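Q: Please design a sequence for this.
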C-alpha cells in the first residue's frame, strides 16, 4: 500500500516540495491523521461499486482513502496552486478525477453524468471549507443530485445546528432546511490537533442520509423555508410577532396570520424553536394562500 499522505512528516514534505502556503481566505486546514480519515470513510459505507464526490481535496489526504474504498472519486478544487500537487500525490490512483472549479458554481449533476456512468451509489465525502459549509450543503441538496447522502467535516458549532432537535438552543432554520432533505447525525467529534494548520474551532463529522420522502409534504418548499427563516428572525420573539414583522404586509395581515396559526394548531405565543418540521409544514401551507398571491 502507498505511504499515506496524511501524516505530519509527509504533509510537510509535500508542502515544502511545492513551496505551498496556506490561504486563510480559502479555509485551508489539511488533515494529518490517517486514522481519522479511515474513520470518516468508514461512515460513508462505500463499496467497490460506489462513487465519491469530494470538495476541497487539498493535497489529497482524504482523496486517497476514498480512492482505495470507492470505484470512482471526483474532487472539486478551487485553488489552482494545488492542481500539480494533486497530480503528483494521487498519481498511484487511476480512479480519481480532479475538477478545477468552485463547487458553488459547478454543474455537479453534469459532472456526475460524465464521470460516474453506471455508478448508482454515490456519496459526498469531504472536509468542507468552514467559511462556506452551509452554502455548499444547501446547493448540493437543492440541486437534487442522484446521491445517497453526505459524510462531511465542518465546524462543530455548525454541525450541532444542523443536527439539532426542536426545543434546543441550536435548533433553527438551518436545522429545518437540511433535515427536510436528510436525516442528520453527528458521526464523530474531531480535535484541532489533527489539522495543519490547527483551526481555532472544534470540528465534527456529520452523516446525512437522504429521505426517500420528505418528512412533511408542503405546497411550496421555498415558502416553507421562508416561513422558518422568518420564525427564527428574532429568537426571543413569539412566532406571531416574527411572522408579522417578517412576512410581506404582515402587520396588516395579523388576523390572517392568527387564523393560519389556529388552522395549523400552533399557539401564537410559541417561539419558533419549539416547532417541529411537521408543524412548520402545516403552518406554511396555512399561510401560503395569503402571502403568495394564490388565486
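A: Design:
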Amino acid at each position: 500500500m502507498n505511504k499515506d499522505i496524511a501524516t505530519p512528516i509527509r504533509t510537510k514534505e509535500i508542502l515544502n516540495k511545492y513551496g505551498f502556503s496556506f490561504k486563510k481566505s480559502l479555509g485551508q486546514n489539511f488533515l494529518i491523521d490517517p486514522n481519522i480519515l479511515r474513520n470518516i470513510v468508514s461512515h460513508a459505507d462505500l463499496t467497490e461499486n460506489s462513487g465519491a464526490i469530494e470538495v476541497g481535496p487539498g493535497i489529497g489526504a482524504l482523496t486517497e482513502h476514498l480512492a482505495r474504498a470507492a470505484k470512482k472519486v471526483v474532487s472539486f478544487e478551487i485553488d489552482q496552486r494545488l492542481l500539480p500537487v494533486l497530480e503528483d500525490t494521487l498519481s498511484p490512483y487511476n480512479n480519481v478525477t480532479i475538477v478545477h472549479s468552485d463547487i458553488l458554481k459547478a454543474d455537479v449533476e453534469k459532472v456526475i453524468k460524465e464521470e460516474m456512468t453506471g455508478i448508482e451509489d454515490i456519496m459526498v465525502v469531504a472536509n468542507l471549507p468552514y467559511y462556506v459549509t452551509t452554502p455548499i450543503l444547501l446547493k448540493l441538496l437543492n440541486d437534487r443530485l442522484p446521491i445517497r447522502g453526505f459524510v462531511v467535516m465542518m465546524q462543530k458549532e455548525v454541525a450541532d445546528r444542523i443536527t439539532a432537535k426542536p426545543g434546543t438552543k441550536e435548533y433553527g432554520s438551518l436545522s429545518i432546511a437540511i433535515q427536510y432533505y436528510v436525516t442528520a447525525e453527528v458521526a464523530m467529534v474531531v480535535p484541532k490537533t489533527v489539522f495543519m494548520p490547527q483551526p481555532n474551532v472544534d470540528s465534527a463529522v456529520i452523516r446525512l442520509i437522504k429521505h426517500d420522502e420528505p418528512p412533511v409534504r408542503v405546497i411550496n418548499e421555498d415558502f416553507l423555508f421562508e416561513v422558518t427563516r422568518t420564525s427564527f428572525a428574532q429568537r426571543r420573539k413569539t412566532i406571531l410577532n416574527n411572522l408579522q414583522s417578517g412576512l410581506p404586509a404582515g402587520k396588516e395581515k395579523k388576523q390572517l396570520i392568527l387564523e393560519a396559526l389556529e388552522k395549523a394548531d400552533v399557539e401564537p405565543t410559541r417561539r419558533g424553536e419549539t416547532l417541529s418540521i411537521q408543524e412548520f409544514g402545516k403552518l406554511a401551507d396555512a399561510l401560503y394562500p395569503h402571502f403568495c398571491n394564490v388565486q
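Q: Thanks. Anything notable?
A: The CA atoms of residues 75 and 98 lie 5 Å apart. The mean pLDDT is 94.
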